[in-house]
Amino acid sequence: MAGLRVLVAASEVVGFAKTGGLADVAGALPAALARRGNSVSVVMPFYNSVRRSGVPIERTGIVLPVPMGDRVLACRVYRSHLPGTSVPVFLVEHAPYFERDDPKSGRGLYQEQVGGNKQDYGDNGARFVFFCRAVMELVPNLGFAPDIIHANDWQTGLIPVYLAETHRHNPGYQRIRSVFTIHNIAYQGSFPRELMNFTGLPGWLYNPGQLEHYGLNFLKAGIVFADAVTTVSPTYAREIQTGEFGYGMEGLLNNLHWKLSGIVNGCDYEHWNPARDLRIAAQYTPETVFEKKARCKADLQHRFHLPGKPAAPVLGVIARLVAQKGIDIILSAAQGFLDLGCQLVVLGDGDREYHDQLQALRDKNPDQVGIYLGFNETLAHVIEAGSDLFLMPSRYEPCGLNQMYSLKYGTPPVVRSTGGLADTVVNATEENLADRRATGFSFNDYTAGALYETVRWALTLYRDRPKDFKQIVTTAMVQDWSWDRSAEVYERLYRRVAGLS
User: Fold this and answer.
1) 39-45 and 88-93 as β-strands: parallel, antiparallel, unpaired?
2) By the number of CB atoms within 10 A of the CB, which of 122, 135, 282, 287 ranks highest?
3) Phi, psi at residue 51, to the nearest 5°?
4) Within the chain, which residues score under 50 in pLDDT?
5) Enclosing H/E stretch for 178
6) Whole-angstrom Cα distance, residue 11 to residue 152?
7) DSSP annotation string for 4-63
8) CATH 3.30.1490.190 for domain 289-481
9) pLDDT at 330
């Protein structure tokens, strides 16, 4: 069967620029698709962070005319490759829009620091109208005609609109189909109606059935006009069709449920594999985990200045410190965990109130609590390998990656049963233990009490039923949540959408 030709469009890609999980997907999925024999390219904006990344970059000689309202802006295109692969990455350059990120001055990809608070750039709408139009102008210059353009999140939401409404009958575009992925429906890209003047789209598209939702809504545009819509787990696909999780899009998604599906993101086992992870104190496999993991635990305790007590259960947390990630119920239950003899280790950055509460908890319990406010890649690996349990009680979680890392590292995750957490963690009920299916611990109610009782159950197995706990560890470690698995599902979807299946 001939390989597909796919262009992946994203506003950030790991190795070049990253603020969240979108970048991981935009880097890992194309690489996995290419390994399966498909011809894949990636396109993203050329930010300052791309220059700082150190990846090799070359000029292509391509200069695109990009219409923006009554002006035409020049856009140079550069080229690189996904690190360690031959997958091309096309970089869309326009300095006024994209070369402004600077960590020293508090300016990021989408936001800047204003008076101590992060604030969206006022021209984000124009910036990503430009990016979407540049992607469409780039298509004839790729050297191949894509079967699929795979757009990701609101920043690329107008691409399916341009494909369907303004470019469909142009030479080279007739056979292209579009897939649009929602990574987090809470971020929608809604802008004043006046932005329509820059888009070049017919004004009649601005109506409640197509582009309008409290302004010109890029996410809605992608949902309405794409040939298929995906999100990052089957459970999240169901959840976003409800009022609790749909953020105003639930009615639209119910009406278009026939083209919505959920595909779990993959885990990059090249970088997250305890058998060859050089960041941790000892490498281990399912066969050696109980012999070697103790060294990783001792290293974790040492790095966070905690007493080296082998018998003290270590609870690990790596998260953005915001309410979505469940940090509020972790803090509410924390004293109860400490009273049970646990140590708590937290790595993350986020809201100031949670920083202050964590620091107060550590000051009160310096022998049981370790915190690192910020992000540190090495410490993330150390926590995954050295903890006994990993806490991830998210209020909602479209997919999640850390629970998959925890499974691979033999650190059973304790999760709330939502989104991708529900799809990837098998709860340690007595039935699942008997069937040797359990890989972690989960609960439903978003309360500190439910989290506390679930941790108590996990500790009961850890302390009093070690055979069952070890079975959970080894079952978790042999699960396959690789990107190759996810890429196969995406490939089937692409073929169906392109009429090639």
Assistant:
1) parallel
2) 135
3) -65, -40
4) none
5) strand 177-182
6) 8
7) PEEEEE-S-BTTTB-SSHHHHHHHHHHHHHHHTT-EEEEEEE--HHHHHH----EEEEEE
8) no
9) 98
pLDDT per residue over 355-414, tens digit each? 999 999 999 999 999 999 988 889 999 999 999 999 999 999 999 999 999 999 999 999
DSSP state letter for 373: E
Annotated domain spans of the chain: 5-266+484-498, 289-481
Torsion angles phi and psi, residue 255, rounded to 5? -65, -30
3-state secondary structure of 91: strand
Angstrom CA distances, 394 to 77, 211, 402, 448, 479, stand at: 40, 31, 12, 12, 22
Whether the Cβ atoms of residue 497 and residue 227 lie closer than 8 Å to each other? yes
What sign for the dihedral angle of Cα 182, 113, 123, 206?
Answer: positive
Q: Is 297 annotated as a binding residue?
A: no
- Residue 407, both tokens: 């499974």
Q: Is 373 exposed, middle or buried (0-12, 13-18, 19+ CB in 10 A)?
A: middle
Whole-angstrom Cα distance, residue 39 to residue 447? 47
Residues 6+ apart with CB under 8 A from 495: 4, 501
CA-CA-CA-CA dihedral for 158, 163, 166, 167, to nearest 10? 140
Q: Say what the pTM is.
A: 0.91
Query: pLDDT at position 195, please?
Result: 97
Q: Quote the tokens at residue 1.
A: 């069967």
Question: CA dihedral defined by 387, 375, 12, 213, rounded to 10 degrees?
Answer: 90
496: nearest Cα among 183, 254, 259, 153 = 259
CATH T-level topology, domain 5-266+484-498: Rossmann fold (3.40.50)
Written in H, E and C, the secondary structure of 98-133 is HCCCEHHHCECCCEEEECCEEEECCCHHHHHHHHHH
Tell me the pairing of strands 216-217 and 228-231: unpaired
Alpha-carbon distance of 367 to 378, in angstroms, equals 22
Query: Kindly report the CA angle at 196 between 192 and 198, in degrees rounded to 5?
Result: 115
| 289-481 matches 5-266+484-498 in CATH topology | yes
The pLDDT, as a whole number, for residue 1 is: 65
Q: Measured between alpha carbons, how far is 412 from 252 in angstroms, rounded to an integer?
A: 37
